[in-house]
What does this fold into?
Amino acid sequence: MSFTGKATYSAGANLPELAEDVSDLIGIVSPSETPLLNIIGDSLHEAVSTRHEWVEDSLLPNKDKINDSSFIDPLSDTDIDVANGNHFQIGDQVQVEGASELMLVTAVNGNTLNVVRGYAGTTPEALLDQTFLNILGNAALEGASKPQVRFTNRQRKSNTTQIFTASVEVSGSDLASRQIGLADEMDYQKQMRLRELLRDLENSMINGGQPVNSPQGSDSVRRTMRGIIPHLQSNIFHPSDPDFPAGDSLDEEKLSFVLRKIWESSNGNIDLIVVNGFQKRKINAFIQTNRSFDSNDQTFMDQVSRYESDFGMANVLVSRWVPQDAVLLLDSSRLSVMPMSGRHFHFKSLASGGDYECGQLIGEYTLELKNEQAHGIIRGLTTA
It folds into this structure.
């Protein structure tokens, strides 16, 4: 039998060429989606240094805690010790949070305020240690000289860039071979590694930590960016907190409580609630008792994709990379994941040392999280 160049099951010139019955589609089961990156979108700016910095400022405080456990008569004492006396000035009208009594500050000596009790005809009420004292506003005297200058100091915040990289190498034979489900092996490997790097970028954006020593890295210290969770310091809520609603299972009361606390302490607009699958099911259960169907309904709907409260409208997002016991509450306008200038994900071809083609996917990114007080997190929720 003459050589035909065709692959056959057995000899015979009249036998058809065998072909495998394989669909030209490669199924990928590994988790690779990046919902938080997708909803935040591309940054408007690039980082121009491995240490990326931004500036934050705040208004002068208008509340402080009473820090006085030695009241002689809480109904008539006119001296009140507070945590930060520099928050107050003579002429401030103040009120204990939740009380009706008004007081007027007549002197500030260090952290001790001298006040007029029962100001404006109000009835004095018992003062309690560790309660908040709200500053309603200051009343200036007519014709008085200008008050002492008061201002806040702008603060420089920073994060470091992190290099994400993966190698690609394909032999000459693989490049020449006809592959099932793809046209170009090298291009396919690039796409696979890029998916992995994007997945890792989102995971690092949420959970990543920064080294305590040499955060900018060195030849022996890898440079890693600080993620969202390590950034948050002010609004961390836990079921064991004294004023947190009872229980460690997520419900509407707890979520509303946290949104209110963040609203009280900042002007952040929480528009993203990011949770894992378990806590998302808990949020879906908020409407369980109010859900109804009629006999013509053929679709069962059991999800909450947006949560509207007195403190704004928030999209509810599911991310695999949020810890099981956590709920992230974010103001997306203060979040940005940015590449270092000229270092967005790209492929760099490398010199081949043999019968193969090789290269490296590289990207360098950092997280800019402004005003961490505008965001919040619940930790320690039950996961069973």
Remarks:
- The chain has two domains: 35-56+157-289+303-378, 63-138.
- Residues 185-207 form the longest helix (23 residues).
- The chain has six helices and 18 strands.
- Residues 1-12, 15-19 have pLDDT under 50 and may be disordered.
